[in-house]
Amino acid sequence: MKFDLHVHSCYSSDCDSKIDDILKHSEMNGLDGVAICDHNTIDGSIKAIERAEELGSEVIVIPSIEVSSLGGHILILGIYENIKPKLTVDETISKARELGGTIIIPHPFKRSSHGLGYIHGIDIDAIEVINSRCLNNFANKKAQTESGKLNIPGVGGSDAHIPEMIGRAYTEINTKDKDVDSILNSIKDGKVQAGGSLTPSSYVLRQIYANMKKAIVNEK
Fold first, then answer.
1. In the record, which residues are listed under signal peptide (predicted)?
2. Choosing a second label site near 152 at 20 to 30 A (CA), which of 102, 136, 143, 192?
3. pLDDT at residue 214 in the model
């Protein structure tokens, strides 16, 4: 099955993507599912689960969150409550484990996007080795190298902040089971293959403009 494991919605402060549009573009782009990982809130993914059921969508939504730890961003998949930001990396991971979460380090070597900058010595389940929002492949290639060295599964995610970007990077998950627990267990077991490509600069500029527009509106 094909998943985009890093998507943002309008529940993130820097994104305007509506839940229904995310589900629509996921289907259009041939995805079986998505992880909606809004900044410091689970609300977007919970709403997406509800809307998928209401709309009769076959897109599988994994409840997820992107937590801003003191060291950088951390994706937590498979949880149904928030983890507060500004904890240490170890505190964030410990809380995620308490909640039964699957832990993925996104864009670890993209420091401009709050990447941790390291992988070694932390308790994680996977590394995002393809992030389509990187302007060049340096950070992705370094993540791929570290994934191989440490024998940690590598996954892909678009980090989409506009619907058209969804599925630009993705993860092929080797399972036929459609329940979330089985999907997450397959990720932990390394039954994954990351794929995708970088986002065109025109899309990046569109996103920057959308972020600025939303920030101005929020200040009013």
1. none
2. 136
3. 62
